Amino acid sequence: MSIEDPQDVPEVWRPHFARQRIAFTFRDLDRNVEGVALNTIRRALQGVGSPSRRVVTAIAEALDITPDEFMATRAKVTGEEPTTPFTLPSRADQLNRRERDAVLSIVHALLDARDRHDQPARDTHTNPAGHTNTPPPEALTNPEAYGLAANRGEKGVTEDGE
Q: Looking at the domain assignment, is residue 95 inside a domain?
């Protein structure tokens, strides 16, 4: 497999490359996509894994298609049904503000984790300011040493102090 070999790019992508006058290789598409690693582009077009919204949007922009068109074309590669917009059941309207915030926090955490997975490797235990933003792996084996309240059965404190 070669990033320069047009045979490695699934054929369903050819019309999108041609419309943008991009040579039919991963490398040439990579030259038109900002902020996405070449291997991530290759995986997204070959239907490997689940690309983040950021990756889908960046590649779709380079190919001058919508993210929905990108996912529909990708679905032809994987043989899966294209994903539809995610909506909560109508009963979710019964959730109070705090419960809704909890659901949204979970969704954002999942999407953030996917975005971090798509970016080049870096130290995930400190943020750019040098502050710890996730516990180190050893915290899982010794939670008491790292003061993880949830693992001690204690209730955590939210940003608003509740």
A: no
Q: Taking Cα atoms as reference points, which of 5, 2, 10, 3 lies closest to residue 73?
A: 10
* CA distances from residue 98 to 69, 94, 95, 162 in whole angstroms, order as listed: 35, 11, 8, 11
Among 78, 106, 139, the domain-final residue is: 78
CA atoms within 13 A on the CB side of 129: 3
* Domain span at 142: 123-162
Kindly list the averaged pLDDT for each block of 10 residues, start to end, along the chain of length 162.
Answer: 64 95 94 94 93 95 95 90 77 93 90 66 47 52 50 48 49
Whether residues 10 and 74 share a domain: the answer is yes
